[in-house]
């Protein structure tokens, strides 16, 4: 067992307390572990209180965990630690503003105050609604900007731009910009021209010079709709290059008016929010910053003796500057540039990769008119942690190779330069078994589930825990996805297959069936004749389409539902309506709790009426907004997580599906990024005719700024480095990303075996339909009657082997030229050669059984049917090395037997299991009768837990 003593370098970090420290170290090197020990060490060895040490983490959860870890390990007074400033930047700024921020808006020339009961708008949709209201007023007041309004795809673009500017420390004042920061909006000409010349250099060919990368990328210029006056393609594109003169002209585009527009929207939106006693996360940081910047006495009072920041690679510029203002000279930041994956939240990887130049630049800015930073940063020390305690050596090596895998065929990636920046890690703690394997499936999600079932309880896969070895459990496995949609689809499929699963990392709460039902009731509450509302409610209660149509047309709603409606009408809060609806339907889960929670919080914050609640729910659905739901299921379940939410975690087994690395163009008409500054992608003009034209200048400039796949690679790196022992990469057979191909692991092409597929009722209980309604049939795979561990079925040869044998048998039955490759396939060939009747292979069959008032449809695939004279043989291949599962297979063959007996009434049907390893067809003498099958059905948990028993009574 690995000792938990810090290593030499970790010790050095723990003990080196005074000064500025940068730790840019790889995954699993113990950064978080060491930081918590360093915190305790400061308390134990310096004359300070917990209040003197600021520890910043990335999420509230991480802060909580860190605090608990410190409380459990530190020998100092635990009660003092409970309120210690271990928090996120937002938590810290919120606290500063509520205590000292009353007059902060004055710094920007705003007359409003920050009250101690100011409401933080955390909800994206709610803020978007507020922003929409604000823009309506603004547009009315500023008609002069109407061309800009017309060019926006969506008002939300402006809100996103405001957040992005705020994260960079670009704030508007009444008369201009705070600290002349608007020069950032102009872009960086030197930087631009440097990359322009690189991208525009012709490429040496064998005989003559070939087109530059930039020139190649410009071909689409001809097809765009630019305003008249834009240069012709031939003017802009020369033989092998793009005109430098026109490119400089494009960079120097006059944007004064556009900047004024952005300034006015930004400034008045801040005023509007404060006027309603609201603040958002971006403005919280902004006001805390300007307050500490201007109020020297306060800054002096608040500053911390020691500051530590975890996950520094995902901080943004204003957070970096805030840390400097809050610091007395002892700052320690830890992170890993290779794990920077939050640029969409405006994080800046350069905070860590260019730590030193940035700190010097920021200090110059902060000290321009007053000496705010009085400590020295001349001696920034770096501590290198190079031992990875998490992953097996193969996984560490593979992760480092993945960082230099090209994302596209033509990507101009300087592999040597990237490699030079990677510090190779040694595996320090994990000497357990290890495997990296990639798979190509026809259906990737089915394939992933198959692999999970193959892993669990399979002696081929071992996990070490607390010094002991054991088989893999579901809870050891994490599937880390790029997009939530993929994760949600996998979740639904896993649930359908009855594989224990939990989805973590946010779900589209308002698109869940429970929420859609609630939305329907809100619609009915707003308008008793709402056909959209009634359609959902009636359908959910089991009414057929025709019945629903006639009820809606005749406004002849069921009495019990009308009574329920009048009960809901008497309620005055969205939360109580939601609670009552969910109670009525017997819906009680973490999802319904969270829906109530969100509705209570947003309707409480902004006093919404029913119409606004409906539109809030609709916008959530349209935007696919996700909410964290406190873990759906605990226990032995495998986890599906987005890569972003898996940051900092580790799992014995990681499955990483292929991800699409094509850049989503995204509908946006404005852009703000280095080195281009603030730009309009689209321009509205009524001349020569009203249209939203492409901006030729932006088009050209955007071609200069290379498509950047670095963050995609880093995302993959984060996912891979969560794995301790086993890493499985998966892809679709037909649709492999270039990044996947370039990882260089030849995928095993395999077809997943069929699972038990109990088709379940929806988790929503229904209001009862008047009269008798035949319940829908339940579809079950024949495997659901069998009691076989998923991996045991192939008796040690593995499912892949079994799949290959089945696949060979199927092909050989129809094409005798196919060659066997294994002894089992050879035996199958012998068997098939010996059969002289008609052969039908892999035929799907369904056996209906009526049981206790309900129809159950058993489905399965018969490997081989052999029809010969008055006899029909059913043959099922098994690649097991023993016959230990024989009795279970008899159940499966019995179902097939009853199907074929019903079809071939005048023939004798016989069933055989063909054990391929032994070349042994075993005739099954005693097949189960239908009554015996019904006895087995009684023991199925799914059917006993019949949803019908949970139907609420409306009467
Ligand atoms: N000196 C050590 N001895 C034994 N185990 C260690 C040591 N240092 C760290 N570990 C263990 O290594 C694992 C990774 O540690 P930690 O999460 O702190 O790394 P990290 O550098 O923050 O990783 P990441 O960058 O991936 O978030 C944890 O299980 C931790 O307990």
TrEMBL record:
Binding-site positions, ATP: 25-32
Keywords linked to the UniProt accession: ATP-binding, DNA damage, DNA repair, DNA-binding, Exonuclease, Helicase, Hydrolase, Isomerase, Nuclease, Nucleotide-binding
Residue stretches making up the UvrD-like helicase ATP-binding domain: 4-392
A molecular function (GO) term: ATP binding
Catalytic reaction(s) noted: ATP + H2O = ADP + phosphate + H(+); Couples ATP hydrolysis with the unwinding of duplex DNA by translocating in the 3'-5' direction
Protein name, entry field: DNA 3'-5' helicase
Listed CDD domains: DEXQc_UvrD
Organism: Methanosalsum zhilinae (strain DSM 4017 / NBRC 107636 / OCM 62 / WeN5) (Methanohalophilus zhilinae)
Upper taxonomic lineage: Archaea, Methanobacteriati, Methanobacteriota, Stenosarchaea group, Methanomicrobia
Domain named UvrD-like helicase C-terminal: residues: 401-648
Superkingdom of source: Archaea
Enzyme Commission designation: 5.6.2.4
One family name in Pfam for this protein: UvrD-helicase
Gene Ontology biological process terms from the UniProt entry: recombinational repair
Top EC class for this record: isomerase
Family, as annotated: Belongs to the helicase family. UvrD subfamily.
């Amino acid at each position: 067992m690995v000792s938990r003593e810090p290593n030499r370098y970790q010790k050095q970090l723990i003990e080196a307390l005074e000064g500025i420290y940068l730790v840019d170290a790889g995954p699993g090197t113990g950064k978080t572990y060491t930081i918590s020990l360093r915190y305790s060490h400061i308390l134990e060895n310096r004359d300070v209180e917990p209040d003197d040490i600021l520890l910043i983490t990335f999420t509230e959860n991480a802060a909580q965990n860190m605090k608990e870890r410190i409380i459990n390990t530190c020998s100092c007074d635990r009660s003092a630690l409970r309120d210690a400033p271990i928090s996120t930047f937002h938590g810290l700024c919120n606290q500063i503003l509520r205590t000292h921020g009353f007059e902060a808006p004055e710094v920007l020339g705003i007359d409003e105050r920050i009250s101690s009961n100011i409401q933080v708008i955390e909800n994206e949709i709610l803020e978007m609604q507020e922003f929409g209201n604000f823009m309506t007023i603004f547009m009315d007041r500023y008609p002069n900007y109407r061309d800009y309004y017309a060019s926006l795809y969506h008002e939300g673009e402006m809100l996103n731009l405001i957040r992005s500017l705020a994260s960079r420390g670009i704030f508007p004042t009444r008369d201009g910009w705070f600290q002349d920061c608007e020069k950032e909006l102009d872009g960086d000409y030197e930087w631009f021209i440097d990359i322009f010349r690189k991208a525009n250099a012709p490429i040496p060919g064998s005989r003559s010079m070939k087109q530059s990368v930039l020139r190649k990328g410009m071909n689409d210029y001809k097809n765009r709709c630019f305003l008249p006056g834009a240069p012709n393609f031939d003017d802009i594109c020369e033989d092998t290059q793009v005109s430098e003169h026109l490119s400089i002209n494009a960079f120097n585009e006059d944007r004064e008016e556009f900047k004024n527009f952005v300034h006015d929207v930004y400034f008045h939106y801040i005023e509007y929010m404060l006027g309603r006693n609201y603040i958002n996360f971006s403005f919280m940081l902004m006001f805390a910053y300007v307050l500490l910047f201007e109020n020297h006495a306060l800054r002096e009072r608040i500053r911390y003796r020691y500051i530590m920041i975890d996950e520094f690679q995902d901080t943004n510029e204003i957070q970096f500057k805030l840390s400097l203002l809050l610091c007395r000279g002892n700052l320690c930041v830890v992170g890993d540039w290779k794990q920077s994956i939050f640029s969409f939240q405006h994080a800046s990887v350069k905070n860590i990769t260019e730590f030193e130049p940035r700190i010097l630049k920021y200090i110059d800015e902060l000290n321009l008119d007053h000496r705010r930073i009085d400590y020295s940063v001349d001696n920034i020390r770096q501590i290198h942690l190079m031992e990875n305690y998490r992953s097996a050596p193969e996984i560490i090596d593979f992760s480092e190779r993945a960082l230099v895998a090209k994302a596209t065929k033509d990507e101009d990636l300087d592999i040597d330069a990237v490699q030079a920046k990677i510090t190779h890690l040694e595996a320090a703690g994990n000497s357990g078994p290890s495997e990296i394997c990639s798979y190509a499936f026809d259906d990737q999600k089915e394939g992933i589930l198959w692999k999970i079932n193959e892993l669990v309880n399979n002696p081929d896969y071992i996990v070490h825990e607390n010094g002991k070895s054991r088989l893999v459990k579901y809870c050891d496995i994490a599937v880390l996805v790029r997009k939530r949609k993929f994760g949600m689809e996998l979740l639904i499929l896993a649930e359908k297959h009855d594989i224990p699963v939990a989805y973590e990392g946010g779900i589209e709460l308002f698109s869940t069936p429970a929420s859609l039902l609630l939305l329907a009731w809100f619609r009915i509450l707003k308008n008793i004749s709402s056909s959209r509302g009634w359609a959902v409610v009636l359908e959910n209660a089991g009414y057929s389409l025709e019945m629903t149509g006639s009820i809606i047309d005749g406004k002849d709603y069921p009495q019990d539902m009308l009574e329920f409606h009048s009960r809901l009408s008497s309620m005055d809060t969205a939360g109580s309506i939601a609670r009552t609806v969910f109670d009525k339907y017997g819906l009680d889960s973490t999802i319904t709790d969270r829906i109530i929670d969100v509705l209570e919080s947003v309707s409480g914050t902004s006093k919404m009426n029913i119409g606004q609640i409906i539109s809030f729910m609709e916008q959530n659905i349209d935007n696919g907004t996700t909410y964290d739901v406190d873990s759906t299921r605990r226990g032995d379940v495998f986890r599906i997580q987005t890569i972003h939410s898996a940051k900092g975690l580790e799992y014995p087994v990681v499955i990483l599906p292929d991800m699409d690395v094509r850049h989503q163009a995204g509908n946006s008409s404005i852009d703000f990024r280095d080195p281009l500054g603030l730009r309009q992608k689209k321009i509205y003009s009524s001349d020569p005719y009203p249209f939203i034209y492409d901006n030729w200048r932006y088009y050209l400039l955007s071609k200069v700024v290379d498509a950047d796949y670095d963050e995609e690679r880093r995302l993959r790196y984060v996912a891979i480095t969560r794995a301790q022992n086993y890493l499985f990469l998966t892809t679709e057979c037909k649709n492999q990303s270039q990044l996947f191909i370039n990882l260089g692991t030849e995928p095993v092409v395999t077809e997943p075996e069929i699972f038990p597929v109990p088709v379940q009722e929806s988790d929503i209980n229904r209001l009862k339909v008047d009269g008798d309604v035949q319940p829908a049939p339940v579809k079950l795979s024949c495997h659901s009657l069998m009691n076989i561990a998923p991996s045991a079925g192939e008796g040690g040869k593995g499912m892949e082997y079994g799949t290959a044998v089945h696949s060979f048998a199927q092909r050989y039955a129809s094409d005798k030229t196919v060659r066997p490759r294994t002894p089992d396939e050879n035996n199958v060939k012998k068997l098939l050669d010996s059969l002289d009747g008609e052969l039908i292979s892999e035929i799907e069959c369904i056996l209906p059984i009526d049981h206790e008032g309900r129809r159950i449809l058993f489905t399965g695939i018969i490997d081989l049917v052999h029809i010969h004279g008055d006899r029909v043989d059913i043959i099922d291949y098994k690649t097991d090395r023993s016959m230990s599962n024989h009795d279970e297979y008899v159940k499966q063959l019995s179902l097939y037997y009853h199907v074929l007996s019903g079809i071939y009434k005048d023939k004798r049907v016989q069933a055989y299991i063909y054990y391929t390893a032994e070349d042994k067809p075993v005739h099954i003498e005693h097949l189960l009768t239908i009554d015996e099958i019904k006895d087995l059905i009684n023991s199925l948990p799914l059917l006993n837990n019949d949803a019908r028993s949970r139907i609420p009574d409306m009467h």
